[in-house]
Amino acid sequence: MVTASPTVRAQTFLEEVVAATPGSDPHLQDCIQCGTCGGSCPSGADMDHTPRALFAMIGAGMKDQVLRSNTPWYCVSCYFCMVRCPQEVHITDIMYTLKRMAIKNGLYKESTTPSAAGFSETFIDYVENYGRSFEFGLATRYHLRYHPVKAVEMATGMGFDMYRKGRMDITPTRIKNLNQLKAILDKAKEIGGTE
Amino acid sequence: MKYGYYPGCSLERNAYAYHQSAMAVAEPLGIDFIEVEDWNCCGATEYITIDLLPAYALVSRNLAIAAKQEQNGNGNQLVAPCSACFLNLKKADHYMSESPELSEQVNQALAAGDLNYEPGSVTVRHLLDIIVTDIGFNNIESKVTKPLTNLRIAPYYGCLMVRPANIESFDNQEYPNSLDKLMKSLGAQVVDYPLKAHCCGGHMTQISENVALGLIQRLLKNAVDYDADAIATVCPMCQLNLDAYQDAVNKRYGTNYRLPILYFTQLMGIAFGMPPTELGFGKEIVDAKPVLDKIERGRLENE
User: Fold this and answer.
1) 2.30.290.10, 3.40.50.720, 3.40.50.1820, 3.40.50.11810: CATH of B145-302
2) Cα B52 from Cα B127, distance rounded (Å)
3) A55, B25, B48, B171: which sits with the fewest CB atoms below 10 Å from its CB?
4) Is B190 left (phi over 0), alpha (psi -120 to 50) or beta?
């Protein structure tokens, strides 16, 4: 019988990913490299690495390469892979975990989709300040910052259609008890989560 | 029947037609919706991208308020018409039930706003679920005064209503059929097409238009290949992508799709004999008038 070593070893990248993913067990270590996920993925062709390859890289501790990959950012969050995975790996949840890690250490900037995090940041900025999402503000602020040409196209094309049809507010809606929401979010940030 | 109701941000404006038609059909079906007081955004697919615990705390404020609203009755069932809101609410409840540590941390955050949420105290359900499961097809059929005869409807489920796999679903997760049955009970001809539960791209229109338009084009083409007159949706994001980006798809792929994208509740309202103006018709970017005309022609032919 082998006795456990008394020395504390550093957390592997795989363990780090598992610990930062919600729920009791995302089953990442159970991946058998069958590739069903990539075969089920509607945007798999545009990814640097298929989910299967990415999970092998996680197992191999290739942290920087994984967090530089555009794969999580091209995930459309359709959960098809999760339905089909024979090992019940929580693939979509893991993609979100990898996005959070890539933002935290800045490596998302080196992916082919550096503006994707900006979209999420702009979105949540409105939610934190009003309690509701704000499509007009989100689209204009995000596109002006990242794709100015697109912003003009949106304003004159689809954005105008949406406005004309009464489907877009040009001022945000604020919830009544915004202070309560802010206190909750501030406390959550202070606790820092399960990571 | 009483239910808690979480409209979500889209239904306030962009998908107002969904809200309006849901409220219109609720009345004859005896559904009483009690809106979650001062609800906030569910975070969509964005908050969880940035930060985990605040994302769960954001969703859980709504669950906590819904649980407190006693008048909900009916076992504190909370209905969300938007598939993204539905999944966020349901997932927060599910993972908090599964992980006491997460639940404890979320509750520490909620306590800063004098709130508390006991996982499992609210049952989150999609609007389509309560209509097909609790109300039932026979009941719905009995309300139909203007059957959608001759109309070929492609039921579109999208992703978040029936998936993921680790969370219990009211319908098959890869090849659902509840909306097919609902459309049949309204007298429509149901188009059985392979991509009915595939992805509309979600927020991908904003990240990579190339990827998004490809996904939207595949769905439109598939529905049109099977001779659909319209697509019935259950989600504001799906409606927006298929409707508002149809023109962009046509430009990019040299196609000429003019496929109206309607909420299933709008079609229920028409079949119940309600005027289109009370069901949010006219807000769609791709004109739904050909659909309304075809229903009318079908009705006249059958008289």
Assistant:
1) 3.40.50.11810
2) 27
3) B171
4) beta
Report CA B244 to chain centroid distance, whole Å. 17
Amino acid A136: pLDDT: 86
| Residue ranges per structural domain of chain B | 2-127, 145-302
Which pLDDT tens digit goes with each residue over B4-60? Answer: 999 999 999 999 999 999 999 999 999 999 999 999 999 999 999 999 999 999 999
Mutate to test the interface with B, among A17, A43, A92 (most CBs of B within 10 A): A43
Q: What is the ipTM of this complex?
A: 0.95
Residue from B10, B12, B47, B53 to probe the interface with A (highest A Cβ count within 10 Å): B53
The one-character DSSP state at B111 is: H
Average pLDDT of chain A to the nearest whole number: 92
Q: What is the architecture, at CATH level 2, of domain A13-110?
A: Orthogonal Bundle (1.10)
Given CATH 3.30.1380.10, say whether it is the number of domain B2-127: no
**Nearest residue, CB atoms, A22 vs list B14, B45, B99:** B99
* Interacting residues of A44 by C-beta distance below 8 A, sequence separation 6+: A38, A50, A51
Q: Which stretches does DSSP call E strand in B83-157?
A: 123-126, 152-155
Contact A158, B35 (CB under 8 A): no
Q: What is the mean pLDDT of residues A153-181?
A: 89
Shortest Cα distance, chain A CAs vs residue B46, angstroms = 5
Domain ranges of chain A: 13-110, 116-191
The pLDDT tens digits of the residues spanning B228-267 come to 999 999 999 999 999 999 999 999 999 999 999 999 999 9
- Rounded to whole angstroms, how far apart are CA atoms B106 and B50? 16
Give the containing element (helix H, strand E) for A96. helix A91-104
A-chain CB neighbours of B101 within 8 Å are 194
Tokens linked to A51: 């989910």
